[in-house]
Amino acid sequence: MNQQQPNASPAGFGLDWPPTWRRLAFVGVAKNSGKTTTLNFVVRQAAARGESLALMSLGIDGESRDALLGTAKPKIYVEPGQWVVTAQKAIEGCSARLEYVDTLGIETLLGEVFIARVLSAGNVVLAGLRHREDVLRALEKLEHCQINRMLIDGAYGRVAAAHAQVSDAVIVSTGAVVATSVAAIVEKTAGLIEPLTLAAVTQDRHVALGLRAVEAQTTLLGRADGSTVTLSPPSALLGLAGATKLWTHEVDAIAVPGLVSDRVAELLLGVSGPRRALIVPDGTSFHLSLRLWRRLCQSWDVVVLHQSTIAAISVNPTSVQGHHVDREQLIEALQRRWPHIALFDPLHHLAEST
Predict the structure, then answer these.
(1) pLDDT, tens digit, for every residue of 34-52?
(2) Is 3.40.50.300 the CATH number for 10-197+308-353?
(3) CA–CA dist 86, 113 (Å, integer)
(4) Rounded to whole angstroms, how far apart are CA atoms 89 and 111?
(5) 45 CB-near residues (< 8 Å, 6+ apart)
(6) C-alpha to C-alpha distances, 258 to 148, 164, 234, nearest whole angstrom
(7) pTM above 0.70, yes or no
(8) Per residue in 114-137, pLDDT tens?
(9) What fold characterizes domain 204-304?
(10) Is 278 within 8 Å of 265 (Cβ atoms)?
């Protein structure tokens, strides 16, 4: 499995990131896990190194209060020379002065989405991008702006920013908000990281099957002789429900181009016969419980067309609900689980530097 870089020193965090990791995604294991604080930390570190940055969000980020919980949220701070992608009405919540550069041709309830250059330091609200295709359009436009790194903030429940075709590497935020014990935090974090770091499919016939399924946007069964069976209806959920008689011993793989939900996993777990390969585009395809995820991996060879790279894990030992876990114990437990991934506590290191 292509796992990343050696653990980085927090004091110089990010200095060892390859220049090829130009598109960095930020995803949280749970809401209020410290993702925005992590984003701010990385922005500050990159600015200190003289890197030019662009920021965007798949959803809304930078608002002063959480829309669902009503709790205070950290604002996103930017400096002159950086770039942002946001919607017209979101500017009303920005204290930074922005200069309009280009439009994305996307209209939202918050108005037109555009690219802007930061002229004066301050806070910004990032909004307007709702789908993976929106992010890809923004990234394509920004490629012509001489930017070192593009930071993509993924709203809670939206792991599309971690898609291997969107980002070069992913920063995962986790902590006490996820669970009340260190062991439970690690397990729930694994539920996000494990799908993203699945092994890439290597067998040529299975690669071709997966690519064909994605191109046709239909679920396909693959036989050992190279022939395929198209499920009808094409969705995995509806197609699998009526595919009982199609699971002959010659079928050794299934390629699912869309989401694998709890119900799809249950249908796959109900398939009898030899162990088979389950091929999906990437780890963001899985939207299922940790229990079903583990059962699926025990019964199927789960592989992806595109593997994601985890750049780092950020930790927040304190929860907005008021409880906390021991910071050192949490970091040690996560490091034992993922010894080759950098770990850091952004609030701790920000406090040390002030």
Answers:
(1) 999 999 999 988 888 888 9
(2) yes
(3) 5
(4) 6
(5) 13, 14
(6) 32, 15, 10
(7) yes
(8) 999 999 999 999 999 999 999 999
(9) Cytidine Deaminase; domain 2 (3.40.140)
(10) no
